[in-house]
Each structure stands twice: as C-alpha cells, then as structure tokens.
Specification:
Elements lengths: L1 E5 L3 H12 L3 E5 L12 E3 L3 H4 L4 E4 L4 H10 L11 E4 L5 H14 L2 E4 L2 E2 L2 H5 L3 E7 L1 H14 E6 L5 H29 L5 H11 L4 H12 L8 H17 L5 H18 L7 H7 L3
Parallel strand pairs: 1-2, 1-4, 2-3, 4-5, 5-6, 8-9
Antiparallel strand pairs: 6-8, 7-8
Helix pairs in contact: 4-7, 7-9, 7-10, 7-12, 8-9, 10-11
Length: 286
Amino acid sequence: MEVGFIGLGRMGSAMARNIAKAGHKVRGWNRSRHAGLAIEGVEMVSSPGDAFQADVVFTMLSDDAAVRDVVLSSNALKNARSGLVHVGASTISVDFADELHVTHAQAGVGYVSAPVFGRPDVAEKGQLAIAAAGEKGAVDKVRPLFDVVGRKTWVFGEDPKQANAAKLAGNMMIAMAIEAMAEGVALTESYGVAPSAFFDLILQTLFGCRAYENYSANIVKGDYEPGFRMQLGLKDLRLATAAAEKSGKRLVQLDAVRTRMTEAANAGMGERDWSAIADYTLHHPK
C-alpha cells in the first residue's frame, strides 16, 4: 500500500517507520525541520499535496489549526488521489472533526478519525491504542495499517467525532489521575509516608493500571522531562471542556484539573511533561 504521512515528530516518525518496516511505501512531509529530515524507509516529499497522492494518508499534527493549514488551506484535499482515505491521528476538537467529515465527503475522500493513546516509546514498539470512527469501508481499508502501529483498535461508530470524543475523555481522565496521585502524596507525605511506599500499596491494590504505573514513577523520581508537553495536555483539557459544554454537561473534576494545569503552565511549567502538574500541586500548595 502507498501511504502518506504528515507530521513527523517523535510520535509520527515512529509510526511512519513502523509502516515502512511492514513493507508499505511511505511518503513523508513535515511542517518543520523538513530539510535534512531522514527516517528509515520514508521518502520525503516536497508538499502536503504530494503526501496525499497515496492510498492512505495519516496526519499526526499538534492541533486544529495545524490540521486546517496542512489539509484544507493547502488544497491537498481537493487534489488527493482518487480512492484515498485520510486518517486523522491528531487530538482535535469535536467541532473540527465534524467539519473535516463534511469537507472530505464534499471532496470525495474517505475520512477516519483515529487519535491514539501512547507516548513515543509506545509508538516505537507499535503498541499504540487506537480510537477510531468513520465509514465502515474506510475503516476496513486502513485497519491493516492500524494493526502495524497499534496493539488494538477500538471502533466507536461511523461518525468521526465519536473517536475524538473518546480521546478527549481519555486524556481528561489521565490528567485527573495525575492530580489524584499528587493529592494522595500531598496527604500521606505530610504524615511521614514515603511516596514510593504509598504507590506500592496503591498500585498493588486499587489502581494497578498503565496511567498510574507510569505517572506515579514520574512523581516518585521527580522526573518531568517532556513525553507529552503540558501545553498540549492543557489544550486537550480545553477541548474536552468545549465538547462538554456543547453537549450541555458541566464536568466539575474537569474544571478543577484544567484550572490547576493552567496555574502550573502559567508558573513556567508549560514545556515540561504534563505530569508536572503533580510537582505544582506538591510544591505550590496555595
């Protein structure tokens, strides 16, 4: 299969590399650092439009604005190869997912929303969790590629925004979990309990899952080197808030954790890992 891949940061480059290793022809394009960028098995092309001359094209970009610029403003969509399916792997708003659904249908191009759960090290191993939604024929066409980059794909329906809603809700819950861990440490540490001892109890009893395992280790080590930058996490919490408001829901825990993360970012932590919200909670109690 011929595959275009747009957005070759740490996540995108790992995904593109795995697709190429599986025997597919991959054409890549990146918004920044394009000149001299070399990824094993990936042929770099000169424009987004070139990447859309494929059977399937993935976009792994930072936000709505980046996707709009690359896919819509560039006219890549209008000049796409006949039969192409675009896989939107970015975390975007539900409103923009709706817009992309409409514009792709008008252009006669298949569209599947497929945001992923997992950090760059998980992407490198081809073990991402994929939340997908789109027309069944389009999903079936791209499923072999999902099997290359992910450990499992969950299909939520034929309306692309269903996958985006699931991704936003998942990221919201991870942020809540990080804040919950930080507050647990804040309470127990004030009574002389070591964070490592507290998490040994919690991980073996109540919360033995990936999010708790991974982010409790960050908290114990005080290691907040960016795997997923706080500014991007805060963007996702804003998108989750907008999605909730659109559906008429007020999510009070979301409001609280978004406020806390905003305070942490404003305190200069925006370029650290989003789990640094725990550092802010533990060391900026006011």
